[in-house]
Fold this sequence. Notes:
Blueprint lengths: L4 E6 L3 H11 L4 E8 L2 H8 L5 E3 L3 H4 L4 E4 L7 H9 L3 E3 L8 H15 L2 E3 L8 H12 L4 E6 L6 E2 L1 H8 L4 E10 L1 H8 L8 H4 E9 L5 H9 L9 E6 L2 H7 L5 E11 L3 E11 L2 H21 L4 E3 L14 H7 L2
Amino acid sequence: MRTTIKLAVIGYGNVGRGVMKAIDKNDDMELACILSRSPDRVKKELGANVPVFAADDFEALKKADVAILCGGSKDDLPVQGPFYAKHINTIDSYDNHSQALAYFTSMDETARNAGTVACVSIGWDPGTFSLERVLGNAFMPGAKTYGFYGTGPRGGLSMGHSDAIRQVEGVQDARQYTHAIPEAIEQVRSGENPELKPGDMHWRECFVVAKDGANTGAIENEIKNMSGYFAPYKTVVHFVSQEELDAKYAGFPHDGLVIGSGTTGDGNKALVEYRNTWDSNPEATANILVAHARAATRLAADGKSGAFTILDIPPAYLSPHSREELIGSFL
């Protein structure tokens, strides 16, 4: 008999809304509760029948098996991750690559001490793209792997980078689009294996609504010099009205590809590509987070504790199907 996994949703923004939709699409998942710093806002949006509590309500948290942490990477998760991992198995989408190891180490220590499982940096990058980079390098020894994001004309909307901009003093709202540089993609596909720095592969475009009276020059300067987010890239900042932002830049499209380029045998060129295209970036991330709730539950049942990335987890632990079904239908 299939076990139902009870989920707590921590934080109710775009990813939290995506998690709710993902729960509805997985018949082995059930909402236990939503914890929010703004419970009244969430109750007003969802209605009285949805169990919504304050962010520090640990009695409500006891109803869940796994907590899906939906906060941002810049300011929320470094605090929320260790805070909740002391009490419950967690899944998060921490996405600051330059600080990923430090965050993993902090979560690993906390979860080991608490006897919980923490699945960290879960999403599509870091996440599924990380896995493809490792596979490409393993299957073609010495191969270089490259990740490109926002390959279409509009680019791809980054939730983490948009959230980082919204933390800047004087910013009311913002959207950030990443644009891949087509010439760099073609260099990689041609087998040149170029040495590319981050700024050679992408540029960033920001649409920002400033608060009344805010210093737009100071806002632009802080964005462009933000370490780990914008500093290495060509970054263009546009100041727009809230109405223009809502009308022209609605939705959350994103896409990307990983290319592994190397050789086999006596120098025969080899190329592996993995691509995804999402109409909704937060819903895509949410679906990946929810699948990892199965993994956290199974790891905990195995007696494991500590932090785990997608690189540490057997793919079968993510699936709702039995081992026999996976071998019979997916192998």
